[in-house]
Amino acid sequence: xxxxxxxxxxxxxxxxxxxxxxxxxxxxxxxxxxxxxxxxxxxxxxxxxxxxxxxxxxxxxxxxxxxxxxxxxxxxxxxxxxxxxxxxxxxxxxxxxxxxxxxxxxxxxxxxxxxxxxxxxxxxxxxxxxxxxxxxxxxxxxxxxxxxxxxxxxxxxxxxxxxxxxxxxxxxxxxxxxxxxxxxxxxxxxxxxxxxxxxxxxxxxxxxxxxxxxxxxxxxxxxxxxxxxxxxxxxxxxxxxxxxxxxxxxxxxxxxxxxxxxxxxxxxxxxxxxxxxxxxxxxxxxxxxxxxxxxxxxxxxxxxxxxxxxxxxxxxxxxxxxxxxxxxxxxxxxxxxxxxxxxxxxxxxxxxxxxxxxxxxxxxxxxxxxxxxxxxxxxxxxxxxxxxxxxxxxxxxxxxxxxxxxxxxxxxxxxxxxxxxx
Length: 422
Prior knowledge:
Mean pLDDT: 92
Structural class: mainly beta
Helix content: under 10%
Low-confidence stretches: 1-19
């Protein structure tokens, strides 16, 4: 039986590699600049002047298949107004340069309170909240903001090799300045397949309380300036909590970490890997409120970072003090115990912050997508992300819609999913 399982896994890995190779071959000659508008003399490439410039944050744009069956292309763009006049964004379209710059996919993002913030920029000058009050279509002269995208496709084969943005903006404070419709050069979508992982723990009732992709919650909106770089360091990260059949995250009043269902759960290696960073001596914090006196190095709490190879690293944050069983340089196998889930670092209650990154750093990194080999979708939590944290801290049962329950293979859990790992 074990030999057959290994054979099946080998075949599946080969199929995954073949699919990735096909995508790489298909996209090998994708243009990295504008296509010529004429084959003769004259201006062959578009030139449009305007107040706004933009660039993608992080090391690239990565597609991943979600538990909803859609392929998600989730990314963030920094928009800067380089003029001294304010500019208002009238519209933003994601287009496919290989198809005459026609709109591609379905783009929609919402705030932590389920407010539509599609096409709006989260401005640096506004309060650093997670609701719509932090977003605007108007960018003052010299100001910048971050715009988030979740472009989805029903069929992964429809994901283009490149995308571009077509942005229509105007300057309402100066009627003498023209409106502008600017088309950006193509931006390549990575053809690298999302890494396939084993689960970081076992059991049922695991809630993706803070993940990708449509919700711009406390992970997706994180774009801290670290070491001179503005990176989307948590855009695919997940905060895992555990609930019982009644939807409660703890027993009793929840004021002690030991009352939480996820506290002390064994954390497991998601793949064969090498330990590259460990912090083990920070204290747990009391549930209910995040600590206010942490240094940057203490935000992740006690944690383990694994080098999975191929420029991908797995990070486990907020572990129980002194529970970590591995050391830097150790080689671990899939399923090996790393330590226990705790409540150390920047946290309001016991949970596991888990992510895959492109660098072995807790904050100076780009978060990458990943999928689990097998899981069972139990359902989806119905309250918004803001309410999920409030409900769990207060002990209010989290209501769940179980209509979408089903076994899943090689997909990424999405925000509000409740899953079982066999």
